Each structure stands twice: as C-alpha cells, then as structure tokens.
Amino acid sequence: DAMVIQNPRYQVTQFGKPVTLSCSQTLNHNVMYWYQQKSSQAPKLLFHYYDKDFNNEADTPDNFQSRRPNTSFCFLDIRSPGLGDAAMYLCATSRVRGFNEQFFGPGTRLTVL
Amino acid sequence: DAKTTQPNSMESNEEEPVHLPCNHSTISGTDYIHWYRQLPSQGPEYVIHGLTSNVNNRMASLAIAEDRKSSTLILHRATLRDAAVYYCILRGNAGNMLTFGGGTRLMVKP
C-alpha cells in the first residue's frame, strides 16, 4: 500500500544533542510537510517542501531545519533539542500544492532527557 | 486564516448517529471546509471536505449551512473505532496549508 512512513516511531535524545527524524513516502507526492504536536495540543505546521522549494513558517524556531534529498525522503533536523521540543513530529504529503487531501504518517514521538 | 470554533468534547453511544458542529462565522467565499480526525497514537487522517453543497462519502457526511457560517460533520453510525479528535479546518483554494484548531474529542460508549 502507498503510504507515509516515519522512522523511528520513538526517539530519545539528550538535551542539546542533535537529532534527525526521517520520513519517506511511496505516494510520489510533490509536497511534504513537517508538523509538531505537543501533548494535548493540535498539530502545528513547521515547514513544507514543494518539490525542492523550502517554505518555512514564520514562527518556526531556527533550531529546526529540514532536508529533502529526493522526492521520497524528507528529514527533520533539530540542532540543539531543548526540553520544550519534546513532542510528536508528524510528516505529511500532498500530491500538488493546493490539492485537497494531506496524507499523514504515524508520527515520531521525541523525548528529550 | 478564518478561525473555527468546536466543542471541546462530545459523547456518543455506539451505533447511533453523531453530529459534530463547527462554527466559522468569518469564513470567506473561497474557503473550503475540511474535516480531519486523529485516532489515538496516530497521525491525522482526512475525512471530508466541501465548499457550499452538502457532501457524502464512505466515512461521513458534511452538512453546510446556507450562509456557510457553520457546518456539521455527521457520522451515521458511530463505532468504537470512531473515537478520535475531529478537526474542522478552513482552507483557501489556492493554499495548501492546514491550520489545526482545538478540535472535538469524540468519545463513543459501547
């Protein structure tokens, strides 16, 4: 089945230690998104790629970066994780910009010790 | 983006219909009404969307008020598996962003 895959499902890192979260998709969608969802809150968009075009949300901290080496893969890099960065990180895709439906992966739960 | 207002939580009995309301009094003419739901420990999933007319699909129905200032997501027969947070989101046709609001936590009782 075509899908959005996130690995690992659970990630533990130490305060200040860089961490990378991975997302891959078999849908061949042009747009990939990263959302942050803190406990009991709604998902919040961090940034998205339309093809290779990177689009950062205005309030996304500089601590968060992203890479998209090809259509299938997208990475979320947190350069110096703080305790406040502990959250569920959700990857999503959509076929083209403006297309109605976004497809979400299961998320990676990040714990910062 | 225009905002939506939803009740924090609702409760339903299994196999009964559920009506989840959403108010969006500042909706613009080009805003589509989207519904997503998030099951426990999963990413959100698309449910349905519409512009002006009522919409039906295999998962649910969407009833849109004539003035478009409110809408209702209808689950015709709730199952335990429908227990989730349901998000009502307005989305401009040209945009591709989803701005999630608080959502409604639906609890389904056996």
Layout: helices, strands, pairs:
The complex is a heterodimer of chains A (about 110) and B (about 110).
Chain A: E1 4-7, E2 10-13, E3 19-25, E4 31-37, E5 44-50, E6 53-56, E7 64-67, E8 73-78, E9 87-94, E10 103-104, E11 108-112
Parallel strand pairs in A: 2-11
Antiparallel strand pairs in A: 1-3, 3-8, 4-5, 4-9, 5-6, 7-8, 9-10, 9-11
Chain B: E1 9-13, E2 18-23, E3 31-38, E4 45-50, E5 55-56, E6 61-64, E7 70-75, E8 84-92, E9 104-109
Parallel strand pairs in B: 1-9
Antiparallel strand pairs in B: 2-7, 3-4, 3-8, 5-6, 6-7, 8-9
| Run of helices and strands of chain A | EEEEEEEEEEE
Computed over alpha carbons, the radius of gyration of chain B is: 13 Å
Q: Could you spell the SSE succession of chain B in H and E letters?
A: EEEEEEEEE
Stretches of chain A where pLDDT is under 50 for at least 5 consecutive residues are: none
Side-by-side strand order of the widest sheet of chain B: 1-9-8-3-4
First-to-last CA distance of chain A: 36 Å
Overall geometry of chain B: globular
> Uncertain runs of chain B with pLDDT below 50, 5 residues or more?
none
| Helix count from the secondary structure assignment of chain A | 0
Largest sheet of chain B: 5 strands, mixed
Helix content of chain B: under 10%
Class from secondary-structure proportions of chain B:
mainly beta
> What is the radius of gyration of chain A computed over CA atoms, rounded to a whole number of angstroms?
13 Å
The DSSP helix count of chain B reads 0
Question: Which two chains form the greatest contact, residue counts included?
Answer: A-B, 23 and 24 residues
Major sheet details of chain A: 7 strands, mixed
